[in-house]
Amino acid sequence: MSIKSIAQKQAIEQHARESEKTRVNVRSLNEECGIFGVWGCEDAAQLTYYGLHALQHRGQEGAGIVANNNGHLWQERGLGLLSDVFRDPERIKALVGKSAIGHVRYATAGSHGVENIQPLMVNFHDMQLALAHNGNLTNAMSLREQLEEDGSIFQSSSDSEILLHLIRRSKATTFVDKLKESLNTVRGGFAYLLLTPEGLYAALDPHAFRPFVVGQMPEGNYIVTSETAALDVIGARFVRDVQPGELLIINDDGLTIDTYTDKTTLNIDAMEYIYFARPDSTIYGVNVHKARKRMGAALAAEQPVPEADIVVGVPNSSLSAAAGFAEATGLPNELGLVKNQYIARTFIEPTQDKRERAVRMKLSAVKDVVRNKNVVLVDDSIVRGTTSMYIIRMLKEAGAKSVHVRIASPVFKFPSFYGIDMQTTDELMGANNTLDEMRTKIEADSLGFLSVKALVKAIDLPYDGKGTGLTTAYFDGHYPSPIYDYEASLSQFIAEGSVDFTEEPTTTYHPRQVASLRNEALQDDGTIHLDSQTIQGVEA
What we know:
Layout: H1 3-26, E1 33-38, H2 44-53, E2 62-69, E3 72-79, H3 82-85, H4 89-93, E4 99-105, E5 120-123, E6 128-137, H5 140-149, H6 161-169, H7 175-183, E7 188-195, E8 200-204, E9 213-216, E10 222-225, H8 228-234, E11 237-241, E12 246-251, E13 254-259, E14 268-269, H9 270-276, E15 282-283, E16 286-287, H10 288-302, E17 310-313, H11 319-329, E18 333-334, E19 337-339, H12 352-362, E20 363-365, H13 367-370, E21 374-379, H14 386-397, E22 402-407, H15 429-432, H16 435-442, E23 446-449, H17 452-459, E24 470-471, H18 473-476, E25 478-479, H19 491-496, E26 500-501, E27 528-531
Parallel strand pairs: 14-24, 17-18, 17-21, 21-22, 22-23, 25-26
Antiparallel strand pairs: 1-4, 1-10, 2-3, 2-4, 5-6, 6-7, 7-8, 8-12, 9-10, 9-11, 12-13, 13-27, 15-16, 19-20
Helix pairs in contact: 2-8, 6-7, 10-11, 10-17
Organism: Leuconostoc citreum (strain KM20)
Active site: 33 (nucleophile)
Pathway: Purine metabolism; IMP biosynthesis via de novo pathway; N(1)-(5-phospho-D-ribosyl)glycinamide from 5-phospho-alpha-D-ribose 1-diphosphate: step 1/2
């Protein structure tokens, strides 16, 4: 390689690093991905495409589908939005078969290359296997190091690939036993879909950090996906939430619900209700839109703004909370900000004026609505604060007399390790500033957050077991499990006593602790079996 080409390569790499730094500064929180799987359905890949389209908000950096055509798996994947990856209709046509799994990705672990786009697919001498993963493994670095020392060769930098290596290296005799052994080795947040020529397998981590649901088509075919909104799009009926520690096996005989561990608890990530999930999704019996409205109403009670004239929500995820705030106070809920739904995803040069322009490309203030008004600006969270500052400036330039920011969640103080793209405290405004310092930096006239207690009450999870059934560690520092490879990163907070970790569960959470779930008939072997033609075992 010539000196010139080396210099060019270094310049490109430096530009990529700067672009990624800027992208971090202007984006909001990001979920790792959305997953969708179907067994035994005509045009399975097309159905998977529709399901993934409903999950596009969960990942916008890459998409892929693997189809099972009479025992042969075929993969199509690429970088970009789902519609970009499958812009050529021939790519969907190539995915022939009655079963498929799909994935939309946002990277929390691993680089942004095509090699990390899922589903990951491997061809062993005796079988094919494809995998899609939503979440983040907290012991991935240790496991990967050990696997590499033992001779494993990784094709990606994603933590998702680890499960494939564990399955292959297992000495168990059957595939299900290999899978169970591997699932008991990984830690952290995971919802897995695995496709083989013989069946579709779904597994949820022992804490149920990520949402995962089962649906059924009118013809009797089963669907497993990240959110109920994807079921609605394809006309499937909701059957049940996948429970922590469960292993679902779907084949031509129907759906069998097994478990890979009986050491489970319930710790649904509260950020799913606050921000990530679609408002038309339901998680463990709680509709996301209604939960967000209750958060807004609770915020109005805890953090009132006596001089307010109007309420304005930040599109799109904060509109439900803004409606709740306005309804509780009797204030007009105005469309003071409009979001450009068609903005292209571009890398922005790392200068302040261009970062601000990136926000203005996404949002516009409606001058005739906010002029001469004392505005309550309702948002779902403040992570880095950069976007909040630009929005406040925009409203004031549009003529707002004052902007009072109200956040429908507690202060984000600690990192997430279970599948949200926020694994250090360096970027967290709430971890490094007092409330007044935060208010000053974002240039708000006042700033208020929802309390953890009010958040839990607003979500109103119909749960009567130990704890709240929710993960609120990012706000209160109480992590519901050890964080393994990441523990050293919180050494300062551990020394201060501001964070703590619950040991892995030693007892069994039972689904009957959630009122929205119904009794299900157990088989003699401890599993639950649902017929492939009719929904059995679940009360309508």
